[in-house]
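Protein: MFS transporter
Species: Duganella lactea
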Amino acid sequence: MSQPNQFSLLKQRRFAPFFWTQFLGAFNDNLFKTALVVIITFDALSWTTMSPSLVTNLIPGLFILPYVLFSATAGQLADKFEKAGLTRFVKWLELAIMSLAGIGWVTHHLWLLIAAVVGMGIHSTLFGPVKYAYLPQQLKPEELIGGNGVTEMGTFVGILMGEVLGAVLVVQQPHGLWLEAAATILVAGMGLVAAYRIPQSPAPAPELKISWNFIGESVRNINYSRKNRTVFLSMLGNSWFWFYGALILAQFPVYAKDYLHGDHSAFVLLLTIFSLGVGSGSLLCERLSGRKVEIGLVPFGSIGLTLFGIDLYFASLAYSGAALAGAHLDAFALLAQHGMWRILFDVLMIGMFGGFFIVPLFALIQTRCDPAHISRTIAGMNILNALFMVAAAGLAIVLLGQGLTIPELFLVTALLNAVVALYIFSLVPEFLMRFLAWLLIHTIHRVDTVDAERLPAEGAAVLVCNHVSYVDAIVIGAVAPRPIRFVMDHRIFKLPLLGWIFRTARAIPIAPAKEDPWLMEKAYVDIAQALHEGDLVCIFPEGQLTRSGDINDFKGGVAKIVERTQVPVIPMALRGLWGHLLSHNHENVFGRAFRSGLRSRLSLAVGVPVAPRDVTPEDLKQRVAALRGDWK
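Structure follows.
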């Protein structure tokens, strides 16, 4: 049966009012900020004597400064109070701030507008923990990737539309400033109306006592998150994305004017392409992940961010705009310039791979952190985001002050991304392991699942599966909703490359008693410990799988483990790997590849869980055989 599309959430009250509230908030932020950046960049002399490059890097820094100061408080408020009511308070605050900004626009008062930038930063700081804590409360686990994808798409489409409209309205003479003021107030009012449709979302910790010491609470939040290594490093990865994005996006106004020799529409074009990239990448995450939290997409996204960031540098050098010095071409004229399409393609790909990078990280944090602490975890992440973005603004100012060009700044950012990614993935090899597994089932194989929802999202269980090839564990791990501890033959565990993957996945090597009785007994101890900690443990109970598919030695393995641990047993069967190049029998692999095409079709069938008291070797053997059917 086909599963509902992620866009079906937009028809449901549990998601739609929230979506439009956050969409209009992102739209208004950028409607305001972009108009201010454009007016400073292209009409600087009538507003300030400061360098346009300095001001355009200063504005994002001031916007995210409240994240550093108030995120800890915002996280506590979001955990203590009901989220719909808190959202309405935030939207009333936005309306007040935009009214203040309106006065700044019509009176031509720059510092009043900059104060409004800080005010909108406070608005976003308060809404951030509510936004990402609301989703796991209202969405099912299998909807979370799609919901996050639609949310991120909406955020960046809102950013795009706000940037486009802000850049267009503010330059309309002679009423551009009045139009800008009216538009921001109107959008704030629309967001407030949408907020009143958000359904009740109970507070997870209503008894929480608010600590107003934002420094101490910020430290406590981050220290609490550090206890969960995977969550904390995912928070760092998320913050790095915002460092990368802030560093790149802050240069677009001056890059469009001084390097592309365009007018304000050239800046809008760059923002449009980037936002379309992030939006499309975010939406593709659900399809590429198979509706589960697939962190294998994170390294994939990081690779793209580096490669296309580097190519943006070389594309900028190859651009033919040097002959246009002094010109200010519009977007349509720029499209006719040699090398412009390559620049736009790089910007699009940076946005798309950014979507692949950021959406799974959000979903991972939402699903693996303490539910009672989720808003404070998001607040801690926002603090890190803010620090990283302030650092990005500071680094840009320093490097540009030292004489680096903007294309060289793109190159430095891309190379830094490669270094940071390697560091994070070396600390949490699960990311790279999942990436290799994801790559396997999306290139060499097409993997279908039958009743995969029977794999538990939480709690301990023993998975029992037939053993066909050396990549069985990778295929199963790529399909599973969470990490699995695999029990495998010690010889396979030592294979080059695959062995590294299995060690990274914390697989448990086992040997027959006649070969290594100590290793066998140690394996049983490790299995019991893993199940005690609530993990999934997968066992391939065959001794040597014959061509007929008979399973031997059930009695000495599964029965002993279940007797010790008393957890449910879930039979499974892999179909289609027999004859694979990495299978135990691949004499006809080339003929098989010719018949089935370049990508072989695999299937993983999951059976009904069996209570520990009902587990017998013969019954399990029959269940696995029935799931396997006539497949090889």
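Remarks: The radius of gyration is 27 Å.
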